[in-house]
């Protein structure tokens, strides 16, 4: 992830430099996910134009995408019925608690939206350290929602929890559009396909949208290989959804990728981006007659109190009971030598750290 970020950053710096050199510096790319193709002499750096501008020509893709979890991962606060109308809150800067400011949650110019039906993400009041913060959280109450402080901290010691501006390191995956100055804050067509500005305006569309960009984009948000923690112990990441995919025979096969099993736009009957309504039917295409216990094989972290739902994708190569995890800690430690040997062989770069 880190080296990928560095490469992306490098590409962006290069793209920026070229933009300035050829004298069209109206573009403000931010760090993000899909790789922006380097500009040529003829083509200016593409702008992010928003998913709605793809609708007229790619209606079916748009309709399918809108129903996917990707489209639903970040929504406007106004989509949520609240028990009480959103109003002004007093916000403390979590890093410098003497700093306060007022934020009007009803103001759409201030509030970007809600990520994963939970965190309210907004612009910081004047004078705060960062530009974007998690400022509050939604909690379900019957069929409505209550706006609450994101953390239980009583900063002014009045016996009530206060709203704090918590640093927002989640945007590159959960709301890449904020950094891209896009109209869509959440995951959009352009999060996978890259900016579509040139494509939308080009008279001849051929070659203006690289079809490979999207296929390679999944891992920029979903890769969750294990890494060493600060004590040098390997730990499995429970967050992004492809935990240990690298260790599977699938991950090592050049002819398979995420799209062997997942659809890129169209959710199945259960609303998931899977190429069949029953996962077993996908497996059966290549493993005829075999029945896999997917619930057990795609194990979740049994010790994570917060119940993160990410499933293991090693398909039996790194089963939970062969990791040597300390069940008393929420982290999944990998201490079994056989498992470490496999990881070291397949992830030599991560092993060096
Ligand atoms: C005015 C109509 C129009 C709009 C608007 C439009 N497209 Fe397209 N798109 C096309 C056409 C036509 C093609 C086929 C181009 C070709 O001949 O390869 C295409 C092709 C594509 C391809 C396949 C590229 C390839 O080389 O295989 C992708 C991906 C794509 N569009 C994405 C988008 C996205 C994302 C948006 C919104 C940002 C968008 N399009 C907006 C007309 C449009
Ligand atoms: C999660 C990533 C992702 C998102 C979001 C996404 N796409 Fe795609 N799209 C892909 C991938 C990957 C492909 C390659 C074809 C496939 O699915 O195998 C593709 C293919 C396409 C194609 C056909 C290209 C071809 O070669 O025929 C079009 C057109 C397209 N997408 C348009 C859109 C539009 C419009 C949106 C938004 C409404 C969108 N996509 C959102 C990942 C994405
Ligand atoms: C910009 C970041 C980003 C990119 C790029 C991305 N995803 Fe996602 N993906 C997410 C987020 C965030 C969620 C969680 C959404 C939710 O559950 O509400 C998610 C959820 C999913 C899910 C689980 C929910 C479901 O609908 O089944 C699947 C499967 C998935 N993504 C597959 C893919 C594939 C395949 C690609 C590449 C074609 C891809 N993603 C590209 C961010 C991304
Ligand atoms: C590198 C990309 C990335 C970053 C950074 C990231 N997420 Fe996620 N997050 C994802 C993806 C992808 C999923 C969907 C995982 C799945 O479907 O298995 C997800 C799922 C979630 C979920 C729902 C599932 C769960 O595990 O509870 C929550 C809540 C969440 N993220 C919160 C956050 C917060 C808060 C931050 C910042 C502190 C953050 N994420 C940073 C990619 C990311
Ligand atoms: C496109 C074909 C394809 C699909 C679809 C597919 N696999 Fe595989 N799978 C393979 C290949 C190829 C191997 C490597 C076989 C080998 O090395 O002997 C493999 C290996 C495996 C293995 C390890 C070796 C074994 O046979 O026990 C498991 C477990 C597995 N797959 C489970 C699944 C599950 C579960 C699904 C569905 C969610 C699935 N596969 C879908 C092609 C596929
Ligand atoms: C061999 C088939 C296969 C491949 C290849 C595969 N997945 Fe999955 N994936 C599945 C199955 C099966 C599920 C479980 C669906 C369910 O919950 O019913 C799943 C679930 C997910 C989820 C949701 C996790 C959760 O906890 O709900 C995400 C996100 C995801 N996959 C992303 C990816 C990405 C990204 C890739 C490529 C790096 C990938 N997958 C490759 C079969 C596959």
Task: Describe the structure concisely.
One of its GO terms (molecular function) is nitrite reductase (cytochrome, ammonia-forming) activity. With 353 residues, the protein is α+β, with helices and mostly antiparallel strands.
Number of domains: 3
Q: What structural class do you assign from the helix and strand content?
A: alpha+beta
What is the typical, i.e. mean, pLDDT? 87
Helix content, binned percent: 25-40%
Bound molecules: heme C
Radius of gyration: 22 Å
Q: Report the portion of residues in β strands.
A: 5-15%
Task: Tell me about the largest β-sheet.
Answer: 8 strands, mixed
Secondary-structure element sequence?
A: HHHEEEEEEEEHHHHHEEHHHHEHH
Question: What is the general shape?
Answer: globular
| Poorly predicted sequence stretches spanning 5 or more consecutive residues | 8-33
Question: What's the N-to-C terminus distance?
Answer: 13 Å
Alpha plus pi helix count: 14
Number of strands: 11
């Amino acid at each position: 992830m880190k080296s990928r970020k560095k490469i992306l950053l490098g590409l962006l710096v290069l793209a920026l430099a070229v933009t300035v050199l050829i004298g069209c510096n109206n573009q403000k790319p931010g760090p993000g996910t899909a790789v922006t193709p380097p500009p040529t002499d003829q083509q200016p750096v593409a702008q992010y134009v928003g998913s709605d501008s793809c609708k007229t020509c790619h209606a079916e893709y748009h309709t399918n995408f809108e129903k996917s979890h990707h489209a639903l991962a970040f929504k406007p606060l106004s989509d949520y019925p609240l028990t009480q109308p959103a109003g002004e809150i007093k916000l403390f800067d979590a890093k410098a608690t003497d700093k306060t400011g007022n934020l009007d949650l009803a103001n759409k110019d201030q509030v970007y939206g809600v990520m994963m039906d939970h965190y309210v993400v907004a612009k910081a009041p004047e004078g705060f350290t960062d530009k974007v913060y998690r400022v509050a959280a939604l909690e379900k109450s019957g069929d409505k929602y209550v706006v609450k402080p994101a953390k239980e901290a009583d900063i002014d010691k009045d016996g009530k929890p206060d709203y704090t501006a918590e640093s927002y390191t989640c945007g590159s995956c959960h709301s890449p559009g904020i950094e891209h100055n896009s109209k869509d804050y959440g995951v959009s067509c352009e999060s996978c396909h890259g900016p579509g500005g040139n494509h939308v305006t080009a008279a001849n569309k051929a070659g203006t949208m690289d079809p490979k960009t999207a296929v390679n984009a999944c891992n920029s948000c979903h890769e969750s290989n294990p890494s060493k923690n600060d004590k040098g112990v390997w730990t499995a990441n429970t967050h992004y959804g492809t935990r240990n995919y690298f260790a599977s025979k699938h991950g090592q096969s050049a002819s398979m990728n995420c799209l062997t099993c997942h659809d890129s736009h169209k959710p199945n009957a259960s609303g998931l981006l899977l190429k069949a309504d029953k996962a077993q039917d996908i497996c059966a295409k290549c493993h005829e007659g075999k029945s896999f216990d997917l619930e057990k094989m795609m194990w979740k972290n049994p010790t994570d109190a917060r119940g993160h739902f990410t499933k293991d994708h090693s398909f039996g190569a790194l089963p939970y009971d062969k990791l040597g995890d300390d069940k008393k800690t929420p982290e999944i430690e990998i201490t079994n030598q056989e498992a470490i040997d496999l990881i070291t062989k397949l992830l030599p770069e991560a092993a060096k750290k």
